[in-house]
Specification:
Blueprint: E1 3-9, H1 14-24, E2 31-37, E3 43-49, H2 52-58, E4 66-72, E5 87-89, E6 92-100, H3 103-109, H4 121-132, H5 138-145, E7 151-159, E8 166-171, E9 176-179, E10 183-187, E11 199-202, E12 208-212, E13 215-219, E14 230-232, H6 248-254, H7 256-264, E15 268-269, E16 272-273, H8 282-286, E17 290-295, H9 297-314, E18 318-322, H10 323-326, E19 337-343, H11 349-359, E20 365-369, H12 375-379, E21 382-385, H13 398-417, H14 423-434, H15 436-444, H16 447-453, E22 462-467, H17 470-486, E23 489-494, E24 511-516, H18 519-533, E25 538-543, E26 556-559, H19 568-586
Parallel strand pairs: 17-18, 17-19, 19-20, 20-21, 22-23, 22-24, 24-25, 25-26
Antiparallel strand pairs: 1-4, 1-10, 2-3, 2-4, 5-6, 6-7, 7-8, 8-12, 9-10, 9-11, 11-14, 12-13, 15-16
Helix pairs in contact: 3-4, 4-5, 7-13, 7-15, 9-13, 9-17, 13-14, 15-19, 16-19, 17-19
The structure holds 2-deoxy-2-amino glucitol-6-phosphate.
2-deoxy-2-amino glucitol-6-phosphate binds at residues 296-299, 343-345, 348, 351, 394-396, 484, 600-601.
Length: 604
């Protein structure tokens, strides 16, 4: 997944492009480049392997007022200068986010091989646009090429003798655009240009956008004009800045109390859950025989939290599916099934395609999404927006907790509509949910203690996260967080399952993060912890006990504030997030931009 930006206007473009790319770097950061029109109408390109700061170092000052920029997460071809975008072929320079699946076939069919110097699908696209460009009609060239392409794309294209004009077209990969007094903008997401405009529109799929300094034109592939549907941003520029924190991730961990309040409070009316403002009717919840939750990564683990809660309270079958697997299974879904897709970005391709498959079976699809107007939000029958604000760090934290909070609200509403919970119990449940932000605020005060205990993690090669019930589902998220930003192998394990093989991996000093917040399985978990402790594990225990005096149980105990057990997930996960964070920073790693990863996986 990559970050793309374009600007054409009345002021210099280069700094807008470079600054915008820095804001998009979380989408991919292995190489970067810009292309701009020189005064003679020719296109100049600067690109390099490395980050945007390395690109800045090779850019010379210029007065260009129209250009495009790209920050890459390699899909085709290694991280090299030649494979960096923009790619130029003949009269055409372009940048691309997505995957052209049939690029080899196109290169052969249209005899493009001799023109290619990189290993990328993008350069084939540039050569194709140039091949169909007659020197007069860029839009005609675009109309002829687009139907030939298979796969996902968001292109920004410049044609050499069309100075000042940027053309754009997308399919699946995201692209938003805006105009301001400075000029016209286009980007993968609006964080790239929000300081210039909070009013933007989503570029419709297969629509051709022509951007000029003071004019934009949108038309479909048949030449029919399309009116942009403008949206207003509901957060401001500072939300996309660190505001004094050393990293976005630490800021976002600390933003969780406010993010949860912004997400749940508008949906609590007179002490009960209400989705009126989301346009989700009670009928959606009434005739629901079973629930399938589909997502990827952290979003899926938030879905696991939802599953545990929903199945426990509603007593109906709830399944969690990995989106990339769900797409190729034969899901057992009827028109009475509810399918909930979860996605922070709303652009994860596997989750989007899973949603499309689900919609062939039921019209009871609901998405839990953080980015307004994103593809998944627009394509699901109903959408429940979380209000976490922009999540810039690649490792998801506040998105997870607001997604979990959304599941708590949905579960309470479902239970009321299906008479699985009395109104009095629902009011108590909602009051407990309203207290979650305070509980997290309490736990955030333990950050120094958590940072200290991670010192024992820094040299670990393997770690285990164990628990039972909701603590087990939480362990999955804890393991992922640690893996993705500290590069330490971590495995989440059902505590009761360890004895069936994996305990063989426990040796002297192996860190085991154990969770024991659920009383109905507490004693069992403590027994399992003793089993690993007896074999030399270094045990960090998270529980709501005041303190643990028995040295055979753990080496370090984190005492969590006493809260109703069903709500312990929120405070416990913050500790796991901080364990991962301080282990990463303790190892001198970049917690915001871990290697090999990108924020939203819009390619398969
Ligand atoms: C989580 O820390 C990761 N960044 C990743 O697993 C992420 O949750 C997953 O790619 C899903 O992204 P989405 O929520 O935007 O769909």
């Amino acid at each position: 997944m990559c970050g793309i930006i374009g600007f054409t206007g009345n002021i210099k473009a280069q700094d807008i492009l470079l600054t915008g790319l820095e804001k998009l770097e979380y989408r991919g950061y292995d190489s970067a480049g810009i292309a701009y029109f020189k005064e003679n109408g020719k296109i100049s390109i600067r690109k390099t392997a490395g980050k945007v700061k390395d690109l800045r170092a090779i850019c010379d000052d210029n007065d260009a007022t129209c250009g495009i920029g790209h920050t890459r997460w390699a899909t085709h071809g290694g991280v090299t200068n030649a494979n960096a975008h923009p790619h130029k072929s003949g009269n055409v320079a372009l940048i691309h986010n997505g995957i052209i699946e049939n690029y080899h076939e196109l290169a052969t069919t249209y005899d493009l091989e001799d023109r290619l110097i990189s290993e990328t699908d993008t350069e084939v696209a540039a050569a194709l646009f140039d091949k169909f460009y007659d020197g007069e009609n860029p839009i005609e060239a675009i109309k002829e090429v687009i139907p030939l392409l298979k796969g996902s794309f968001a292109f920004c294209i410049m044609f050499e003798n069309r100075p000042g004009v940027i053309y754009a077209v997308r399919n699946v990969s995201p692209m938003v655009a805006a105009t301001s007094k400075e000029g016209s903008f286009i980007a993968s997401d609006l964080t790239a240009f929000i300081e210039y405009s909070k009013r933007y529109f989503i570029v419709p799929e297969y629509a051709i956008l022509t951007l000029e300094a003071n004019k934009i034109d949108l038309q479909d592939l048949n030449g029919n004009t399309i009116e942009p549907e403008f949206l207003e941003v509901d957060w401001d520029m500072t939300a996309a800045q660190k505001e004094g924190y050393p990293t976005f991730m630490l800021k976002e961990i600390n933003e969780q109390p406010a993010a949860i309040n912004r997400t749940i409070m508008p949906r609590i009316k007179d002490g009960l859950p209400s989705f009126e403002e989301d346009g989700i009717p009670d009928s959606f919840f009434a005739d629901c025989n079973d629930i399938t939750i589909v997502a990827c990564g952290t979003a899926m683990y938030a879905g696991m939290v939802g599953k545990t809660l929903m199945q426990d309270i509603l007593g109906i079958p709830v399944t969690v599916a990995i989106a990339s697997e769900f797409r190729y299974e034969r899901p057992v879904i009827t028109d009475k099934s509810v399918v909930i897709v979860v996605s922070q970005s709303g652009e994860t391709i596997d989750t989007l395609e899973a949603l499309r498959l689900a919609k062939t079976k039921t019209n009871k699809t609901l998405s839990i999404v953080n980015v307004k107007g994103s593809s998944i939000a627009r394509e699901s029958n109903y959408v429940l927006y979380t209000h976490a604000g922009p999540e810039i760090a690649v490792a998801s934290t506040k998105a997870y907790t607001v997604q979990a909070a959304a599941f708590y609200l949905l579960t309470c509403k479902l239970a009321l509509v299906q008479n699985a919970m009395s109104e009095a119990d629902a009011r108590t449940f909602i009051r407990n949910l309203e207290n979650v932000s305070d509980n997290i605020a309490e736990v955030l005060k333990l950050s120094d203690k958590v940072e200290q205990l991670t010192k024992r993690m820094l040299n670990a090669s393997h770690t285990f996260f164990i628990g039972r019930g909701s603590d087990y589902t939480l362990s999955m998220e804890g393991a992922l967080k640690l893996k993705e930003i500290s590069y330490i192998h971590a495995e989440a394990y059902a505590a009761g399952e360890l004895k069936h093989g994996t305990i063989a991996l426990i040796s002297e000093g192996v860190p085991v993060i154990a969770l024991a917040t659920q009383s109905h399985v507490y004693n069992k978990v403590i027994s399992n912890i003793r089993e690993v402790k007896a074999r030399g594990a270094y045990v960090i225990l998270l529980s709501m006990d005041e303190k643990i005096t028995d040295a055979t149980i753990c080496d370090t105990h984190i005492s969590l504030p006493k809260v109703p057990e069903q709500f312990a997930v929120f405070e416990a996960v913050v500790i796991l997030q901080m364990i991962a964070y301080f282990t990463s920073t303790g190892k001198g790693l970049n917690a915001d931009q871990p290697r090999n990863l990108a924020k939203s996986v819009t390619v398969e």
